[in-house]
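Students often ask what a 'structure token' actually looks like in practice. Rather than answer in the abstract, let us consider Transposase, a protein of 424 residues. Its sequence is given first.
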Amino acid sequence: MYGVQKQQLRNLTKKEYLATKTMCHLAKNMANVGLYNVRQYFFKEKKYLNYYENNKISKSNENYKLLNAGVAQQILMKVDENFKSFFALRKIGAKAHIPNYLPKDSHFELTFPQIKIQKDGSFFLPMSPAFKREYGKVNIKLPSNLVDKKIKEVRLSPRYDGRFFSIEYVYQVEEVKPKLLKKNMMSIDLGIDNFASVLTTTGASYLLDGKIIKSVNQWYNKRNSQLQAIKDKHGLKVLSRKQMSLIDYRNHYINDYMNKVVHFLVNNCLKNKIGRVIVGYNKGWKKESNIGKVNNQKFTSIPHGKFVKKLKAMCERFGIAFYEQEESYTSKASFLDKDVVPIYGKGEKTKQKFSGKRVRRGLYRSADGTFVNADINGAANILKKSGFRYNFKKMCEIVKQNPTKIRISETRTPKANTDLRASA
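Now compare that with the structural description of the same chain:
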């Protein structure tokens, strides 16, 4: 198992910055060389040029020679991944656009599969002797918490047209397999005001407050509009430093919030021996959401997809089975009344009828007039749609109880016997 630590690359000298930016530009050139080879082969032969053949052809290119061979190969592997997706879509008859060339003045990510850590805890970016003679070495200090870790690879990404760089360290982490029970399950309904509504078969129900994300997004939009107005007044087109700083702050804040939510949920799973996590999630929901213009805007500005990936990675590390469950009609059907929860778009095109309905202040009223939390009702229906067995009578009692409201922003990252921060 591997963890990833990401941060902004700082403290480069002017010479090191120029060398790094130039390498990222050469990486863009190398990507375009790889794209050209595969595209031309496809146009002429109507066949796929695989990575191995592309690598053979590309070795004589000047960009390949200037870059470290391992770095150039990683770039060609990324090109190969893009074309595999293209050909996979063509194979099933889906609409597919052939990968296009990168802009002339752009930059591309560098991946270093092997680095040698020095005694002082730093490392030099791998580069060809020819490049090193012209631009010099680039020395980077490894984060202190990773000095004793086994580094698998380092990824360096240009940001804002190469004005800044972010760096990711992929490192090996100890695989932990705690004793968990598959019969113990956690069902999660993602939303806006309640970022995550959680129901467990072990007796808990709680709502993780998402209003802080709404607040940060509102503040970001207001401040960015002010900065944009200043730019427009002076006829500036590119992002200003203040805008870049604002974007970074917003992204880092939301990323930190999601990490805390993931840690909180996984710690609860470990504490209660929960062996299955089920998340209601539809991959196309942001494009197709129809919950009102204002709510649509709020929903699309919250990166639920990124959160799902983070939670999945953490669950896999600790041996918790993770499932994404199609969630149509889960908010409309009544769990207490055993309503059938259909899949949107399948079956007869008739208006679905359910026993209860959602009423004021996030409450759901069942057929007999029982009020339950609407989001917890949705989480229960997600569990139901998963098809796993559970005690219906017991779950009804859990759904009826008042869920605990939790403000993640006020909680600290939980400390456990295992270091959850490793794969954040």
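One point worth highlighting: Residues 2-172 form one domain. Ask yourself how you might have guessed this from the sequence alone, and why that guess would often be unreliable.
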